[in-house]
From TrEMBL:
One of its GO terms (molecular function) is acyltransferase activity, transferring groups other than amino-acyl groups. PANTHER family: ACETYLTRANSFERASE, N-ACETYLTRANSFERASE DOMAIN-CONTAINING PROTEIN. Coiled coil: none annotated. This is GNAT family N-acetyltransferase. Gene3D superfamilies: 3.40.630.30. The keyword Ribonucleoprotein does not apply.
Length: 268
């Protein structure tokens, strides 16, 4: 049997993780959801976005397992930078994070508080269901209004979300499902970065879940990505989101690695 795309990538993963694959998925993830401010402290990426609360846009991401020298000084330096933005300091632990850094954080009263699965699927061999087609939109304003509605997010972040979407460099499909009488029903962002396509910011309105709309939207995005030349799809999903995980598993997505957010416990 010939193996391609995500199958070959998955087979390459060692018990300790396929770090080159992790680096590649991290890189496309940064490009697909760009922070307003990105600076480097050694190999640590310090990401901040004043107008948007997304943890992915406001965290420190260590990207080299061997880079932990002067960790306490660098954490304090990052803390001051986050304070200037009015943000709590968060560290995002991927398989690239140095273990001595994590041990030092735990000793200083830090703890992980959220786990996210990074998953991939082989688009080349994927049989997509025959569903209603949803074509991508290029209307950023319309997409933002729909996304805020179905995510039930604060409309005040609309300008920041517009800046994020406008800053995405790779080709992007904005997928929206609407009802003329009831407004937005679902929204999804698909970012194609060469042979990789990322599914981001996917949500279905609470009263329309478990009715097949999620399957329709995901099918439409993956079909568009495949036609556009993507070979592998990737996404990030909260490890506790059982319904989303069930949907993604049905489409052949499998976990590649997990990451965790860390914060310092109050009073530590």
């Amino acid at each position: 049997m010939v193996t391609i795309g995500a199958d070959r990538l998955m087979q390459a993963i060692s018990p300790h993780g396929n770090l080159p694959l992790v680096r590649r998925l991290e890189a496309v993830g940064f490009r697909a959801w760009p922070a307003a401010s990105v600076v480097y402290d050694g190999s640590w990426q310090v990401r901040l976005t004043g107008g948007h609360p997304s943890k992915r846009l406001n965290c420190v991401v260590p990207l080299d397992p061997s880079d932990y020298r002067d960790a306490a000084i660098r954490i304090e330096r990052a803390r001051k930078r986050f304070e200037h933005y009015g943000r709590p300091l968060l560290v995002r632990e991927t398989p690239l994070a140095p273990q001595p850094l994590l041990e030092a954080l735990r000793a200083d009263g830090w703890a992980p508080f959220e786990t996210v699965n990074v998953m991939t699927a082989d688009l080349a061999g994927l049989e997509l269901p025959d569903t209603i087609s949803h074509l991508p939109s290029h209307d950023i304003g319309r997409y933002i209004d729909a996304s805020l509605a179905v995510h039930e997010e604060d409309p005040a972040i609309k300008p920041a979300l517009a800046e994020i979407l406008s800053a995405i460099k790779p080709p992007t499909g904005l997928f929206i499902a609407e009802d003329p009488g009831n407004g937005p029903l679902a929204a999804m962002l698909c970012v194609q970065d060469n042979d990789l396509a990322g599914i981001l910011s996917f949500a279905v309105a609470p009263d329309r879940r478990r009715q097949g709309l999620g399957t329709e939207m995901l099918t439409a995005a993956l079909r568009w990505a495949r036609i556009s030349g993507a070979r592998t799809a990737w996404l990030q999903v909260d490890a506790s989101n059982a319904s989303a995980l069930s949907l993604y598993h049905r489409f052949g997505f499998r976990e590649v690695y997990r990451y965790h957010y860390w914060r310092q416990e109050t009073g530590a």
